Amino acid sequence: MILADSFCQNANARSNEFSTTESDSPLIVQFASNNVNDFVDASKLVYPYADGVDLNCGCPQRWAMKDGYGCALLYKPEVVYELVKGIKNNLPTNFSISVKLRILDDLKRTVELCQQLEKSGINFLTVHGRTPSQKNSDSIDTNALKTVCESVKIPVIANGGIKTLEDADNLHNITNCRGVMAANGILVNPALFSGAKTTPMSCVKLWMDMKNRHQNKITFQCYHHHLVFMLDKVLTRQQKQVFNHLCTFKSVDEFITTNLMIPSDFNIHYNIDNFVTCDYADEITMKHSSKCRSCGRSICYCICTKYDYDLNNGSFFTSYVQNFDHLDYMDCNIFEETI
């Protein structure tokens, strides 16, 4: 989920939040937005490099809802309609527009909302099987997801509680959905859809090699962040206490090589294209660059923010967990050792 206003305003946000390769397709970019101008302009910026955009109406975090993002839009269907129409009216028809949402307590209202979205012209719909007030430890409502799938003709992608390939197969069989989305599960185990139960060491080594090959594209914060997720089911509690506080590329690589016994000459043969250098339209970015709407609203990118994505001290995880919702959007206490 990329904040559309920050993406339009700030070059660092664009650099850190979006990257792609020459053959990375189909690619859908998900934005959080609460107004048409930001959503349309952010979508125009990524249009040359993506196949479509998705509007997040499913984030239940308090900061997002407070600022009118995510689940807050579930209660403002007229705003969602305008956001969708903004894309339909300003971008080519072959550029897809989709919406990700959560079910409401009232299943009838959920179905009506999904049918309204279908009429607005979206190409597909992703539905998370929990309400905005539910935690990720709660079970998803498969009956509600099945009802939604039966109530619309556009493809519905079911989401929620996917930790294994078996979970994905079961959800598909129960709901007859057209696809299954994994969020936390794919972060913890990027090889989930291959059937692997935990992150294979070959996957960890691949990420290390990608970092070495594309150092100008992968920051330490991004590199470490994903490894913290990937190794959650691999490292012991004591190892996490050390690993989650490492603050340099070298220390992270040495820890992995030593503790996970990955030989330095262990090579992974993979085929990945070069990263694309994105050239964003000046007429759009300049229009937003003078605005500073992030103070007190947007947590990620602003000249007054306390968070610098490029800092290498690793302290972001501790401060983020302490200050923002205690990860109420997570399935697992991935950062429990840093609190």
Automatic annotation (TrEMBL):
Entries under PROSITE patterns matching the protein: UPF0034
Flavoprotein found in the keyword field: yes
Annotated GO MF terms: flavin adenine dinucleotide binding; tRNA dihydrouridine synthase activity
The organism's place on the tree of life at top rank: Eukaryota
Keyword list, A-Z: Flavoprotein, FMN, Oxidoreductase, tRNA processing
Domain DUS-like FMN-binding: 1-246
SUPFAM superfamilies from the UniProt entry: FMN-linked oxidoreductases
Protein name per the record: DUS-like FMN-binding domain-containing protein
Organism: Parnassius mnemosyne (clouded apollo)
